[in-house]
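Lab notebook page, bench 4
Experiment: in silico fold of construct C2
Operator: M.H.
Input chain length: 363 residues
Purpose: comparison with the prior construct
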Amino acid sequence: MKPRATVATETDRAADRATGPIGDGESGHSRSGDSRSTAGDGGTSRKPRAAATTPPAAGGITWRLRLRRDRTLVLMTLPAIALLLVFNYIPLLGNIVAFQDYDVYDLGITGSPFVGFDNFTRIFEDYRFWQVLINTLVIFLTQLLLFFPIPIAIALLLNTIMSARVRAWVQAVVYLPHFFSWVLVVTVFQQMFGGAGLVAQWLREHGHEGFDLMTNASFFKFLVTAQAVWKDAGWGVIVFLAALAAVNTDLYEAAAVDGAGRWRRMWHVTLPALRPVIALLLVLRVGSALNLDFEQILLQRDQVGPGASEILDTYIWWTGIKTGDFGYAAAAGIFKGLFSVAMVLGANKVAHMLGEQGVYSKK
């Protein structure tokens, strides 16, 4: 005689075979239930089988699950989002004064009358505005041609230095002026190249005629470019050195095995690796064509005169904000923003034509 546990097991198997074709019908449940209720000690029934797990949706997890999963990251970004809203996006509502005869003292935004596009018409009819715009673009092109390639050249030079200590020392020396204010930078250049500067005094001591570059209107665009190079070239070097650090060293070894010298390796390996970064920074630089350093120009405006030093920002400050014509200043600011957006889109289109990604990838 078989043990009772063995008999119960065989009974359960027989019941499963008997109810298999029926599935979830009533007769199947009744027969399996009867057999399981009489099986074993005390008539204990078997546990039902676990239901199959529902597969995830085709579109992935829902936004609620993502929010629950990434709630820590979301909380970390909330202060940054709040700062953007308060200082970048909410002030955009104030651009409505560009379409008003704005009176900041008595009427305010809600009480100032609307004048439509009269402020923009004043801008386009102001010949002085177009002179300032051309002067701004001339200074920008000078800086683009003379300043933009220098960080690339310094990064390539530092990349060829084998000693890590020397490379770190040179990078620190070049990067240090970035932390100086424009007041200090202009003061240093005044002490060096002014009429009573060190260079002029040294020339006079040796029988030559001194000079004053700080008041030379024709040299002003080169002066501000030299100041920008001395102050911010080290900042741009960091970006290009980071791009060079990602270059696979096997490419240099393979090029050296093929007989390529140092210049060939730089031309065929290093520069192609820098092309995406150069294209991106160039597009961003072109987009900020009208965003020259306001403080730098304002500090030297009176020395060379507004004819050579006036840029769009200083012109808006002088004719708009300082005289209380805020509607004119707001209209000029909107024009500046639209012009910058057009420059970014155009430069990004050129980058796509050259095979680079630019600011955003081509769809």
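Observations: Residues 1-11, 14-45 have pLDDT under 50 and may be disordered. Residues 185 and 227 are 7 Å apart (CA to CA).
Next step: discuss at group meeting.
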